[in-house]
Amino acid sequence: MTDLDIPVRISRNSALRILTEDLPAPVVADLLGLHIHSVSRWADYARRDWAYYLDARSNPRINDN
């Protein structure tokens, strides 16, 4: 796909993030043949996004308008 100038990195990163949200890191590492440290970083990234969302939902900002 890269030879055809079709960007794949964004889709790959999204797929890894979604997999690490749904499956434990060791399972994803075994399924994809990736190192556990790499998958653990993706899992941490996915958890940070979720934690930010929960924080934003529980601490709404007061609109000054």
How would you characterize the overall build of this protein?
With 65 residues, the protein is mainly α. The radius of gyration is 16 Å and the shape is flat. The mean pLDDT is 80. The longest helix is centred in the C-terminal third of the chain and has 23 residues.
- Uncertain regions spanning at least 5 consecutive residues: none
State the end-to-end distance.
48 Å
Give the ordered list of helices and strands.
HHH
Helicity, in percent?
55-70%
Topology:
Blueprint: H1 9-22, H2 25-32, H3 36-58
Structural key phrases:
single chain; mainly alpha; 65 residues; 3 helices
Quick overview:
The chain has 65 residues and is mostly helical. Helices cover 69% and strands 0% of the residues.
